[in-house]
Amino acid sequence: MTIKPFNIAIIGAGRVGTLIAKFLSEIIGHRITAVISRSTESLQRFLKRVKAETTSISILDIPSDVEVIFITTPDSAIRGVAENLCKLENLNFKNLVVYHTSGVLTSDVLSCLHWLGAEIGSLHPVYSISHFDYSIDEIKKIKFTLEGSRKIYDITKWIFYNFDFNIFPIEKSQKILYHIACVFASNYMISLLHAIDEILKKANLSIDNKFLSPLIEISLKNADELGVVNALTGPIERGDIETVRLHLDELKNKFPEILPLYSSLAIETIRVAFKKKSISVNLASKMLDLVSSYIGRK
Ligand SMILES: NC(=O)c1ccc[n+]([C@@H]2O[C@H](COP(=O)([O-])OP(=O)(O)OC[C@H]3O[C@@H](n4cnc5c(N)ncnc54)[C@H](OP(=O)(O)O)[C@@H]3O)[C@@H](O)[C@H]2O)c1
Q1: Domain limits at 236?
Q2: Is the CB of 18 under 6 A from ligand 1?
Q3: What is the Cα–Cα distance from 67 to 20, expressed in whole angstroms?
């Protein structure tokens, strides 16, 4: 099957803009006809990695033959960019598809474009994109969620050619909770690794979280293979309340900054252990009382 190459414009030459452009041009074979950004620095960085016919810091330079636009600016700039696009008289809105890539915002921020005839969508890469040089093999594995106007899912399947199996539909009303889950899966996981490093340092150990990698990896593997609840082990799951007390005392004395984090996770872990039926309601309640007493909830 041969694909029709689309004329694509990227607005926002940052990490996601560069990755999407690489995906669409190198993997699928579309043309990046324009890249628009806020500064020449980000444009130059983009051009070192992806070819584009027009580059500009003005949205007015978007060519009239553009068929697909990706707004990959920070969330706070998306609505403004969309409103500026709506003022462009040279665009053929009825032949235009516009996406943004925010995980939390819906396609509603692009509404003015839909009123003019464009198809709109929020297409969120479910990935932590922290640099500009992902390999094609890595990019191919990225999953996306998609929400938008009525025809957007079919159109996106067409634009993404045979990568449609990696695109999952999502409803507008699901986006905020979905994004909270993503933040836990990525950002808070990093914060957890940071806390682990700091605790090891506080213990004067010359190891960091990499030493604990096998433990982290087996926990994820067990969650995959046994299910999240059944994967739980440790003092709370065993009902070792005195071990939890030792932890809380040590943190209170030596590392009080970490006490709220430990306590919040302990409360969630008590919930999981109870769900697993490894602790009784009575023990769960005793443990909750203990943890709460260290964070002033009792
Ligand atoms: N990074 C991730 O892991 C990730 C994952 C999924 C989704 N997202 C979403 O993807 C979007 C982009 O995130 P990012 O991490 O790629 O951000 P980023 O690296 O900070 O890139 C944003 C780019 O937008 C440009 N820009 C800012 N305001 C602009 C405007 N008004 N007009 C044109 N260009 C403008 C910036 O240009 P200058 O550099 O020249 O200032 C910058 O290059 C966000 O909606 C974010 O929520 C991010």
Answers
A1: 184-294
A2: no
A3: 15
